[in-house]
Amino acid sequence: MPPRRRFTVPLPGGGSLALGDRALIMGVVNVTPDSFSDGGRLVDPGSAIEAGARMADEGADLIDVGGESTRPGAEPVPRAEEMRRVLPVLATLREHGLRTPVSIDTRHADVAEAALDAGAALVNDVSALSDPAMARLVAERGVPVVLMHLPSPPRVMQVDPHYDDVVSAVGEALAAARDRALGAGIAPAQILLDPGLGFGKRTGAGVEDNLTLLSHLPHLLRLGHPLVVGASRKRFLGNVSGAASVEKRLAASLAAALAATWAGAHVLRVHDVEPTLHAVRTAAALDPSEWNAAWSTGPGA
Ligand code: HH2
């Protein structure tokens, strides 16, 4: 593969994430009764802990723990309930000596703060610092943060989304989020960006904003930050592949993971760690540098 742009993201406690050689795999642990992808499977802490530990054994580079579904139409979860779901999972993973860094998937600074105290090392904020206290917290703690593109709250985000040019719109919104983060004192090296596939993007009616974004990831890389991409099991993959049910979307998810890795993504947020890791390792071993020539010099060219 052509060299991916390299980044070193410092982690609290002296470690770091080396982003570059191949896309890192972030395994998803949703401690929720209603996530679209695994709704209810990991709601009891024991199953969530087991899933996190298994993903780490399978080779996940990061584990993303969340206690609030952000699927289309989802209602916000009270903070106390979000904490009740995630904190025991984080604490037990730490007690079990998990070495894989854990991110907390939350939009709320108080949940993020409690999660960092319980051992999380990164914040994954799908709302890109919508809670004003979040930017302060991340800056003070010196932890990395994922800023994702979310044009409106999950409850209404799929109500008639519209873009003249989705790549420019997402790029501009991510640049603005990055600038807000820098303004709050978050170090540039701690900021990762994410186009938010499936979040307020059009799918299914002949317009596939998610595929357009996947095809244009290099445009977003020009912002100068590592890119996180979460395509795994999402509805647009069902629409484009014909895999209507979530359970049937592994192959489409792997295809999207490969597209993202070849386009230069640094972190892939996925539900199926082992197969994705096998796929990206294979992709990383290939050298597609001749492909452009093959595409542009076919018969008749
Ligand atoms: N997608 C989901 C949740 N968090 N975070 C980032 N950075 N990027 C994503 O694409 C992303 C995310 C939605 O997926 P899932 O967690 O499986 O579902 P739910 O929100 O229903 O819990």
Describe, in short, the structure shown.
By secondary structure, the chain is α/β, with parallel strands linked by helices.
Give a written overview of the molecule.
It contains 11 helices and 10 strands. The chain has 301 residues and is α/β, with parallel strands linked by helices. The chain has one domain (7-296): Alpha-Beta Barrel (TIM Barrel). 40% of the residues lie in helices and 14% in strands. α3 links the parallel β5 (102-105) and β6. The protein has helices at 45-58, 79-95, 109-117, 132-141, 166-183, 209-215, 217-221, 235-241, 250-262, 273-285, 291-296, and strands at 7-10, 16-19, 24-30, 62-66, 102-105, 122-125, 145-148, 191-194, 228-229, 267-270. The strands form 2 sheets. It has an 8-stranded parallel beta sheet. It binds 6-hydroxymethylpterin-diphosphate. The site of 6-hydroxymethylpterin-diphosphate (HH2) has 21 residues, from β3 and β7.
**Count of helical regions:** 11
Order of helices and strands: EEEHEHEHEHEHEHHEHHEHH
Gyration radius, rounded: 18 Å
Report strand %.
5-15%
CATH topology: TIM Barrel
Lateral strand order in the biggest sheet: 8-7-6-5-4-3-10-9
In CATH, the homologous superfamily goes by the name Dihydropteroate synthase-like
Q: What value does the average pLDDT take?
A: 93
- Principal-axes geometry comes out as globular
Low confidence ranges:
none
- CATH-level-2 architecture: Alpha-Beta Barrel
Domain count: the total is 1
Strand segment tally: 10
Please give the share of residues in helix.
Answer: 25-40%
Distance between the termini: 26 Å
Bound molecules: 6-hydroxymethylpterin-diphosphate
Question: What about the largest sheet?
Answer: 8 strands, parallel
Please identify the structural class as seen in this structure. alpha/beta
- Kindly provide the name of the CATH class: Alpha Beta
